Amino acid sequence: MKWFKKSLIRRIGLVLSAFVIGSTLLYGLFSVQMLYTFFAANSESALLKDARLIATEIDSTFEKNSVIVEQMKTNQDFLQVLAEIKSQSEKRTHPLFFRVTQSLQAIKASDANLNLAFVAIAAANDLITSDAAFDSAPGYQMSERDWFKETIAAGQTTITKPYIDLVTQELVVSITTPISTDKQTLGALGIDVRVSDIYQLMNSHQIGSNGQTLLINKDGGIFYRPEQAPDAKITAANLDSSLNDFGSAIFSGNSGVVNVANKGNPFYLAYVPTEKSNWIVATVIPRSEVLAPLYQFIGINGLLFLLLVVIIGLFIRSLTSLISKPLATIAAAIDSFSHDDTPINLPAGFYARADEIGVLANCLHQTSRRILENIAAIEQHNTTLNQEIKNRKAIQMQLEMSLALLAGAEEGVFILDQNFSCIYHNAACPQIVGLADADVVNINLRESHLLIDENVIAQLASHERFSGEISHTPAGASALTLFLKISQVMTAEGCYYIGNISDLTLKKQIEKKLNDLKYVDPLTGLPNRLFLDQEATALIAADKSQTASHALILINIADFRIINEAHGFDFGNAIIIELAERLSKSVSSQDFLARLNNDEFGIFKTQLQSPEQLYLETLALSKDLSADLFINNQSFIIETNIGISLYPSDASSYLRLFKTATTALNNVIEDQFSSLAFYNQHINNLSLHKYEIQQQLRNALVNNEFRLYYQPQFDIRDHRIVGIEALIRWFSPRGMIPPDHFIAIAEESNLILPIGEWVLLSAGHFGKRLYDLGYPIPIAINLTKLQFKLPYIKDIITAMLQQTGLPAELLELEITERTLMDNEKECEEVLTTFNKAKIPVAIDDFGTGYSSLSYLKKFTVDKIKIDRAFIKDIPDHDDGAIAKVIIELAENFNLQVIAEGVETAEQIAFLKKNQCHLAQGYYYAKPLSEEELLVFLKTAKIGTAATSPLPKIK
C-alpha cells in the first residue's frame, strides 16, 4: 500500500486500467447488442425484400397473362362460338372453328410460358383449344371440373388451383374468365401456365448460402419447396408443424417476418401474399447464418481485450521508472531553491534528456536564474513607480481645476461614450435643455432623441464632427434654437464625443424682428414690395432659357384716397386688412402675394397654364374682392382695378415686367368700363372673346340654338347610301357659328359634355325615326376626348340606346387619333366594351395625328376615315400617295376606309382605282337638315344600285 501511495503515476495507472477495462467490457456488451439488433433487422429487411421481389415477379407474370385473357373477351369470334355451338358434334362443323383455333394458336405462340389457350363452351360441354386435334372424351362433364367451378364461382377473371390439363397432360394453373348473358352462362375463356415454369422461377432465387424459398397456398398447402418436384397432389400438403403457430399471421393477407424453429434450429421466415394468385411467397434463412459475423466479432475482440490488459501493465511500470523518480529529484531541488538565492542545479543527465523531464529540468534552471534577475528589476521599478505617482497627482490637480472652470461656463459642455451615453456634463448643460441635473446623468442622447438625431450621427460617421443649428423643445416650454458643436475623439480606451451647446433663441428672435421690419408689411402681415421684388427677380433670373411662364398682377383700390378722407384712416386701414385676408385665401401656395404701397397689392403667379385660364382666375378674384365688406357693422363695397403682365411675352426681366403691369393697371384706371386688363391687347381681346363664347354656350342648350345636320356616306361602286354623319350647327342670335369656332372652347370649359349628350340623344331619336320609316341607315356621331371616359361613356351610350330605341348596330362612334393616344389603357377598355355591344367605331381625320401602326393592332376599331386634307388636291396638286398608303394600311388590317371631302369625279375615279369604296362630300351631298335628308333619301332609292350618279344637292 505504501508503494501505491508514494507514486501518483501508479495510482493514475491503476485507475486508468480499471477505467479502460470497464469501458472496454461495457463497449463490448453494447456493441454485441447493437450488432445483434443490426444483423437481425438487416436480415429481416433483406429477407422481406427478396420475398416481395419474388411475389412481384409472380404477379407480373399473371398480370401479363390476365391482360391476354381480358383481350380474348373482345374477340367476337370467341363470343359467337360460345353462343352458337350447342353440342360436341357442332364444334368442328361450325364455320368459325378453324379461325378460332388459329386465333388460340396465335395467343399460345405469343408467349413461350403459355401451355394452352382455350374456349370452354358450356352448352356443348366441350373445349376449342390451341391444339386443333383435341376433342373431349365422350361423357366429359366440364361443369364438374374444379377449374370451371372456380371460374364460374369467381364471376370474373381468376387464377385456378393447379390441376392436370387433359389436353397436354401437364400440371398447370389456368387464368380464366367467365362469359355469360343475363339468362345463362355461355362458358369461359382462358390460358394455361405450366406449374414447372413457376417452379423454375422459384428455383432462380437463392436466399443466402443455406436459405430457401417456399410457395404456400392460401388454403394451407405448400405449393413449392426446393426439394419438391411438381405434383398434382401438392395442394393437399399441410404446413410444417414449425409454422402452425404462425398460420394466422401468414394467412392474414399482410406481409411480415417471424422467428421459427425447426428441429431446434432457429430460422427467420418472411412472407408476402401475391396479389394475382392464391399463393404466399415465403423466404427462409437460418439464424446462425445471419449472426455468423457477430460471433466472429466477439472472438476477435476477446483476444484484443487480453492483449490490452497486458500492454497497460507494462506501460504503468515503464512510466514509474521514467517519470516518478526524476520528478522526486526535481522536487527536492526546487525545495532547496526556495531557501537560498542560488539557481536550481540538477544532475547533468536530466539536462541531456529530450523528453518532458529534460525540458522541465532546463526550464527550471533558466527560470530560477530569471527569477533572481526579475527580483533585482522589480526593486528598480518600484523606485520609478513612486516617482510616476507623484507626477500623476500633479496632473489630477490640474484636471480638477479645469473641470471647475467648465462647471461655471455659460455654454453647456458634455462628454459622451461610444454609445452616446452622457458620462460628464457641466451645470449649464441641463439648464439649457430644460432637464434636471439628475436626469442628464448617464442619459443616452441617441435613444432619448435629445440633441442627437440621425443627421448628426451620419455627419459624425463621415466627418468625425458636427457643427450647426438644431431645434429643441423642452417639456412644457416653447421651442428653442440651439447651436450644437460635437467632435469625435479616439483614445486608447475607445471612442468618445466631446460637445458644447449654446442657446441662440433670443438671437433668432431678434433676427426675425429685423427681418419682419425689412420684408413684412406691419399693417397686414403680408410681405412687402421689397420681398416681392427680390423673390420675383430671383425666379426670372434663374430661368435662363425663358421657358417658364409667370405673371405679375397689380391690384389697386379705386378712390381709396376719398375713402380715407370720408371715413378716416382707421376705416381705411380696416379695408386694407380685410382685402389682404381675401387675397391670402385666393392665391395658391406657389404664388407670391405682397402689399406694395398704401392701396396697392401685387401677386406674382408662377407656372401659368394659359392666358385664358389666368383671365378666368383673375375675373373670379375680382368678383371676390367686390363682395360686400362689413366694417364697424357697416356694409361697404369697394371697386378694384387689376393690371396683368406676362413673362416672357410682355417682358424678359422683372423690372420691365413691373413697368408693363403698371401700364396695364393705369389703362384700367383710365378706362372706366373695365376692371381688369392685360398689357397685351391681343390677349385681352382673345380672353374676352372666349369668355363671351362660354357664356353664350351656357345659354345655347337652354334656348334650343343647336341643330343637327346629316351628310350621307356612299358606296362609290353602286352609289348606295351606306350611312350618315351627324354634324352640329349653332344658330346663335348673332348668326350661325361654325363648329371649329366653339367646339374647342366647349372642351376647355367642360361644356362639351352636356352638348355631346344632346347630340347623342337627338341623333338617336332621328336614327330611330329613319329606321321606323324603312331606312335602316347607320348614323355616325363624333365623340371628344372628355366624353371618351369610363364609366361615363358606357352609361351615356346605354341610356341613349334605351331611351331612343335605336338598334346598337345602327350607331357608329367616331373618335380622333389623339383621343386614343392620350389614355391607351382606358380607351382599350372602352373599345372592347363597344365591340362586345356590336357598336362599330371609326377613327376620324386619320393621318393628321400620330398615325401609329401599333394602336391599329392594339385597339378594336372597324373603320378609318381619310382626312379631307389628303383628298382635296387630288389629282391636280397631289398624286394621292398618302391616301394610297392609308387605303393599303386599312386593307392590311382588314378595316373599312372612307374618304372625306370628296368633291370631284376625278377624286371618285382615284378612290375606285385604289380600292377605296366609301366616300362622303359635296360631290354627293352637302350636310342636310332632317327634312332635307328625308327628301334626299326618297330620291336616292335606298337599297338599290343606281345606274348613274345621284343628283347633287348644293
Strand and helix layout:
Elements lengths: L1 H5 L1 H65 L3 H9 L3 H4 L5 H13 L4 E8 L4 E4 L16 H9 L3 E2 L3 E2 L6 E10 L4 E10 H9 L8 E6 L4 E3 L22 H4 L5 E7 L2 E9 L5 E8 H51 L10 H5 L3 H52 L4 E5 L5 E4 L2 H6 L3 H4 L13 H10 L1 E8 L7 E12 L2 E10 L1 H15 L9 H14 L7 E8 L2 H8 L1 H18 L5 E6 L2 E6 L5 H15 L3 E3 L2 E3 L3 E8 L6 H17 L5 E3 L2 H20 L5 E10 L4 E13 L2 E3 L5 H6 L3 H21 L6 E4 L9 H13 L6 E6 H6 L1 H13 L4 E6 L6 H6 L4 E4 L14 H12 L3 E4 L5 H9 L4 E2 L10 H11 L14
Parallel strand pairs: 22-23, 25-27, 27-28, 28-29, 29-30, 30-31, 31-32
Antiparallel strand pairs: 1-2, 1-6, 3-5, 4-5, 5-6, 7-8, 7-11, 9-10, 10-11, 12-13, 12-16, 14-15, 15-16, 17-19, 17-22, 18-19, 20-21, 24-25, 24-32, 25-26
Can you tell me about this structure?
Helix content is 47%, strand content 21%. It is built from 30 helices and 32 strands. Helix 2 packs antiparallel against helix 9 (287-337) and helix 23 runs parallel beside helix 24 (792-804). It starts with a helix and ends in a 14-residue tail after the last helix.
Question: Main traits of this protein?
Answer:
954 residues, alpha+beta, 8-stranded mixed β-barrel, 6-stranded antiparallel beta sheet
Q: Percent of residues in beta strands?
A: 15-25%
Which stretches are low in confidence, meaning pLDDT under 50 for 5 or more residues running? 232-237, 943-954
**Helix share, percent:** 40-55%
**Number of helical segments?**
30
- Multimeric state: single chain
The coarse overall form would be flat
In round numbers, the mean pLDDT is 81
Which structural class fits the helix and strand makeup?
alpha+beta
How large is the radius of gyration?
Answer: 58 Å
**Largest sheet data:** 8 strands, mixed, barrel
Structure summary, number of beta strands? 32
Strand line-up in the sheet with most strands: 24-25-27-28-29-30-31-32
Span between termini: 147 Å
